[in-house]
Design goal:
Helix content is 72%, strand content 0%. The chain is built from eleven helices and no strands. It has one domain.
Length: 224
């Protein structure tokens, strides 16, 4: 069983080594921050360093992990008849989102707006609503990394992989910058998004081999 899982893991990583090398470096660095820097210090290091241009930039960037943006990407792929990309992005978004929602409700962690209520250094932008609960893990970060991993795996293109990774990292950073999440939320969200995307793309072909599966489910078949 262990050898099979290792073989499947190598298969996924081989589709786009550039993306997964970048992700491994990111995961190691943020893991070190999570375990060796206090939750409050890591949050304030990012959140208190702000500027108006950055407020605008990260407000736009954060929507890379929004459900409406992901659906827009799926529609764009459909319009250009890139059905494999459309099915993959839709499937991984739904799967990663479902797992994320379960974890959010399970942990029900307070967000920075609740933890730092009354703190004069706490930075938010006036044009975005601020959430107070269900902080862990970050849903936007999960969706952003799930889509980035999906595009990297399906395209097998080094440039696309690095670009998608960069956009996902900026999205994760924006969640802390905008006062919506802690670093540990985006850390786990990035791992969750990438992991669920890889698992979905590997597992679905085996699931859909079942003769009991209806056509309405088999349309989710993805080739990697």
């Amino acid at each position: 069983m262990g050898k099979i899982l290792l073989c499947q893991l190598r298969k996924v990583c081989a589709t786009n080594p550039a993306f997964f090398i970048c992700f491994a470096v990111w995961a190691l660095l943020v893991t070190a921050v999570v375990f060796f820097v206090t939750k409050s210090d890591s949050f304030h290091f990012i959140n208190t360093r702000h500027a108006f241009w950055a407020d605008i930039f990260f407000t736009i960037q954060t929507y890379f992990g929004d459900g409406l943006f992901v659906i827009g990407v799926v529609i764009a792929y459909c319009c250009t008849q890139q059905w494999n990309f459309a099915r993959a992005v839709l499937g991984t978004y739904a799967f990663s989102g479902l797992v994320c929602c379960v974890l959010k409700n399970l942990f029900n962690a307070d967000r920075p707006a609740t933890v730092f209520r009354g703190d004069p250094t706490f930075h938010v932008v006036s044009w975005l609503p601020v959430a107070h609960f269900n902080s862990f893990p970050s849903g936007h970060t999960t969706s952003a990394f799930a889509m980035a991993a999906t595009v990297a795996i399906i395209s097998k293109n080094r440039t696309f992989g690095i670009l998608a990774f960069g956009l996902a990292v900026l999205t994760a950073y924006s969640r802390v910058y905008l006062g919506q999440h802690f670093v540990e939320d985006i850390w786990f969200g990035s791992i969750l998004g990438t992991g669920t995307a890889g698992f979905y793309l590997l597992a679905m072909p085996y699931v859909l081999r079942s003769k009991r599966m209806s056509f309405s489910v088999k349309f989710l078949q993805v080739k990697i």
